[in-house]
Amino acid sequence: MKSWEEVRLLPGAFEALRRLSRSEYALVLVTNQSAIGRGIISLEQAVEINARVIAEIEAQGGRIKASYLCPHRPEERCDCRKPVPGMLLRAAEELGLDLERSYAIGDAVSDIEAARAAGVRGILVLTGRGSEQKALLGGDMDCLVMDDLRAAVDYILGLEERVV
After folding, report:
1. pLDDT tens string 54-113
2. Which CATH number fits domain 12-163: 3.40.50.1000, 1.10.1040.10, 3.40.50.720, 3.40.50.2020?
3. Which of 21-24's residues contact partners 24+ apart within 8 Å by CB, and which partners?
4. From CA 112, how far away is CA 135, in angstroms rounded?
5. Interatomic CA distance for residues 108 and 125, integer angstroms
6. Domain boundary assignment for the chain
7. Within 10 A of 164 (CB to CB), how many other CB atoms are there?
8. Burial state string for 138-154 with b = 16 or more CB within 10 A and e = fewer than 16
């Protein structure tokens, strides 16, 4: 995303995030933003966009514990850009998260690969880029595939209710 005008919050996302926010899970935003490294937008612009997304979520009753972004281009091979797990590992360390009991929900194979590398259960949602990305999942890619964020949250909350 290069501007706030490009941000699209999908139908049902606020309701799903609000429900998940009432659970004991810490909601963390983890995003690749190579437009920074490519010189298309500044770090400050990307941080502002993410802050506005978080403000919108919170205005709708959700809560985001923390936000992490990778500003690097893919060819820089940094230790934070998904599919490597750097941002997830950093969040776990800084926030005291139990990765084995955590989920990563995303619409890209790189999200699922980062989750797997961090020991987190990955959920690919078919909204956004998810439908196209599903075809790229390798046979050894163990993850759940859900129609949308609402379905992923239903699964997470339903699973936790069965465990308790």
Report:
1. 999 999 999 999 999 999 999 999 999 999 999 999 999 999 999 999 999 999 999 999
2. 3.40.50.1000
3. 21/61, 21/62, 21/63, 23/156, 23/157, 23/160
4. 13
5. 8
6. 12-163
7. 5
8. eeeeebbbbebbbbbbb
